[in-house]
Amino acid sequence: MAASELPDSTETTVDLINLLAGIDTDSPAAALRRERADVAAYIQGSYDALLAPAEASGLSLTERALVALRVAILTESSDLVAHYRQQLVAIGVADETLASVAAFPAEDRFTPRQAAILRHTDLLTHAPGDATPADTTALLSAGLSVSEVVTLAQLVSFLSFQIRLLAVAQLFAEEA
C-alpha cells in the first residue's frame, strides 16, 4: 500500500488493534497510535489482505480463520481467541469444529488438508526454526499449492506479530 493509498484520516475505518485493546479514540494511547497512522493503516491492511480478502484465493476464509484461532489459542491471546471464534461462528463453522481446534491434534475432526494446515500452524507458532522442506512437502501432499503454503506462512507470521502488538497496545490502554 503506497502512502497515496492510505485511508483518509476522516474516514471511519475499524482499527482492530484499538478495538480489541480497548483504546478509546480520545485517549493518550490512541493519540500515540495516530502519530504513526501510516503504520496502523499498513497493519490493518495486512489483516484485511490475509484474513478478510475481498476474494479469497487459495486458502479459504474458513481455513484462514481456523489458523488464526489456532494461533490465538496456542499463544493464549484471549481477546483474539474470542475475535476469531466470532468470525468462524459468523461464517457457519460448528461449535464442535471450534472445540476441535482447541483440542487439536488430540481431537481431530478435520479433513487431511485442514489437519496438515493446523499441524504446520503449530510448528510455525511453537518452533518456526524447526520447519524443514519435508514439512512443506507434507503440505503439498495434503493438497496445498505452493502459493497456499506461502500464504499460510505469511498468515502465521502476521498473527504472531498481531498478538505481540495487541499485548503492547493493551499495556498502553491500561496506562492511559
Give a verbal description of the structure:
There is one protein chain. Helix content is 67%, strand content 0%. It has 176 residues and is mostly helical. The protein has helices at 16-21, 28-34, 37-51, 61-74, 78-90, 95-103, 112-126, 133-141, 146-175. The chain has one domain: AhpD-like (Up-down Bundle), CATH 1.20.1290.10. The model is unreliable at 1-12 (pLDDT under 50). The chain is built from nine helices and no strands. The radius of gyration is 17 Å and the shape is globular.
Name the CATH superfamily classification. AhpD-like
Order of helices and strands: HHHHHHHHH
The structural class is: mainly alpha
From the 3D structure, determine the CATH topology: AhpD-like
SS field, number of helical segments: 9
How far apart lie the N and C ends? 31 Å
> Would you report the number of β strands?
0
Rg value:
17 Å
- Reading off the top of the CATH hierarchy, the class is best stated as Mainly Alpha
- Which sheet architecture does the biggest sheet show? none
Average pLDDT level? 88
How much helicity do the residues have?
Answer: 55-70%
User: Low-confidence segments, ≥5 residues, pLDDT <50?
Assistant: 1-12
Share in β-strands? under 5%
Give the CATH architecture.
Up-down Bundle
- The best one-word shape is globular
In the residues, how many domains can be counted? 1
